[in-house]
Structure formats: structure tokens, C-alpha cells
Amino acid sequence: MLVLFETSAGYAIFKLLDEKKLQETKNLYADFESPEKAANVLKLTQFEKFEDTTQALAAATATVEGKISKPLKKLLKRLVDPDVQEKLLVADSTLGKAIKEKFSFDCICNSSVQDLMRVIRSQADSLLQIDEKELAAMRIGLAHSLSRYKLKFSPDKVDTMIVQAISLLDDLDKETNNYIMRCKEWYGWHFPELAKIIQDNIAFCKTVQRIGYRTTAVELDLSDILPSDVEAQVKEAAEISMGTEISEEDITNIRHLCAQVIEISDYRAQLFEYLKNRMMAVAPNLTVLVGELVGARLIAHAGSLLNLAKHPSSTVQILGAEKALFRAMKTKHDTPKYGLIYHASLVGQTSAKLKGKVSRMLAAKAALAIRVDALGED
Predict the structure, then answer these.
(1) Among 114, 251, 254, 333, which residue's Cβ finds the most Cβ atoms within 10 Å?
(2) Membrane-spanning residues where (predicted)?
């Protein structure tokens, strides 16, 4: 019975001297306590060393995909004996199937084999007769190369940034709305007319932060925050306001809240710019068709750009309206014509009668654009 053991240095083939050891896995750890004991259980018969890190990386990626790499193929060809049906213990069942199809080995992969691999790993340096430090260096080098390979070729990694950014953008919008509502209610006790005069929320917060007590509004210059006509209305309303008096501590806390709203608003603008750049880099065709926000929400809803590319245009069209779809199917009513794609500018500009047709047409083109972005090469 042979054992195929994969290392960062190369492929090793061991001869299992006592096959009964595989059935008595409880005693395996005791048999591998020292290099001397391990040598009584296993004997190294073949070792195919990797020439360099590039070959090691190619072999590792082939193993992950369940394929037989060139060094492994070369090693197994030397072991094949047409007269003997040899059993081969492997750690990966997918790789075992590939070896069984290509060669005449009877591959075994079960929990007992996994336990055996674990104890071999603990004594790998002595069994392979390689220095422990050298083996550790090879292991680290291969791990770094494999990580770089996975990051480079995984399409899911880049669009994770988009999913996180659009989720954070929505959270910031909710938080800002709550803070502004609280701010208007709080300051409304002192100067209730201000919220009716200034419609823009950020301008409102900047004005409150600047004037503090309403009595100081007449003396202050607000031209850098408000238009001249609105500034005049604010100063006029401040003189005849029906609001109550509040303490210095109240004004301080209201100003802190306004500063928080302004800070969040500035960060949101910065985050939106980042999202625009990310979308143009990851999914430029989708961005041109539906816009940055709708495109990002579609990607976030599907989980990744690659997952979104797997959806047909009919699914892209109603993505985000799943509850309405299942409710309509349950009650046997008309199904929804659009989901997140409704917020695309092209659908928004269309008359109500044609919105369904335009969303269907846009979804068809968007589905093609998504596939080009996800699977196309530069």
C-alpha cells in the first residue's frame, strides 16, 4: 500500500509497511511520536522535487482544481506496474478520482487516511530528510505565491469593495436623516421658523452651527452659507421668532450634533466619489447603462459581479422586488415589471405607460454588459 504525500518541496511516495496501522488510527499518534518510530511505519520510495516556486505553484493550483500536475504525472508513471493493482492513499478525493481514471491505481481517501496524513506532516522533515527550516521557508514561499495567484485571478475579490461601499453609503444616508430630524426637532424649540426657511439640510446645520442663539443671527454674515434673499428671511424671522429660550449647554450639544452631520455629509461625498471610480474600473459597461448607484446595488444584491453575470435578463429586471414577485405569484396577480432597475435614469425619464417595456429592454442590455464586465478580457 502506497501513500501519496504532497509537500511544498515536492511529491513524496511512501510505502506503508504495516497496513493494519490504517485500521488502528487511535495508535497512529503513538507510532509517530519520534522520527525512529515513524521510520518503522513508513518508508520513502520516491520523491519528485519541484524545480522552483513557479512549478510548485502550478502543482498546487492543479491539486486545488482536482487535476494531475506534470511532476505528479511523471512520478506516477514510474510507479505503474501493469501486473500489480497497487492501492494508493491520497488526501484529496477529487485528485484520487483523476488518478484512478488516468492510471491503474486503486485510490483510497477516507477519515483514516486523513489521520495518517496528519501524523506524516508532524514528522515530514525527518521522513523526507529535508531540513525543517528549509521546508518551512518553502512552505511560506508557496503560501505567498498561492495567495497572490488567488487574489489576481479571483473576480469576487475586487467587487467586494463595491458591495461594502454601497452598503455603507445606504447606512450613512439613514444615519444622516435621523440626525437631521433630531437636530431640527431639538433646535426647533428655540428657532422653529428656521427649518421652514432653509430647505437644504446641510445648509441648515451650518447655519445653526454659526448662529447658535437666534438673537445673534442679525449681526452675523451668512452669505457664504445662504443666498442673500434666504439670509434676509432668516434675520427677519430671528427678530420675531416665537421659540423658547434654551441654555448654553443645549446650544453646545446642538452644535456638536450639527458638526457630526456635516462631517458625515463630507465623508459621504468622498465615499460616493470612491464608489464611482470603483464602478468604472470594475463594471464600466453596466455603469454607463444604469448608473453607479443602481449598478452597485445590483452587484450587492447578487453578492458579486460574477453571480450577477449568471442571472438572465428577466431576473436582472426584477432583482430587488422578490417579495412583490412571490406575493403576486401567491395571490395570482400581475407580477412586478421592475426592481432596482426602476431607479435607472433611462426608466425614470420614461412615461408611466412605457416604463415596463423600457425596463425590460434595459435589463436585456444590462445582462449583456454585466457578462462582458465580469468575463471579458481587457
Answers:
(1) 254
(2) none
The dihedral of CA 200, 206, 210, 212: what is its sign?
positive
User: What's the CA gap between 328 and 330, in Å, rounded?
Assistant: 5
Could you give the C-alpha distances from 339 to 163, 297, 312, in angstroms and in order?
18, 11, 14
Q: pLDDT by residue (tens digit) across 352-372?
A: 899 999 999 999 999 999 999
> How sure is the predictor about 334, in pLDDT bands with cuts at 50, 70 and 90?
confident
Got the DSSP string for 331-352? HT-PPPS-SGGGGSHHHHTS-T
Q: Judge if pTM exceeds 0.70.
A: no
Tens-place pLDDT, residues 213-250: 998 988 888 889 999 999 999 999 999 889 899 999 99
Q: Enter the C-alpha cell of residue 88.
A: 494508493
Evaluate if residue 90 carries a pLDDT over 90.
Answer: no
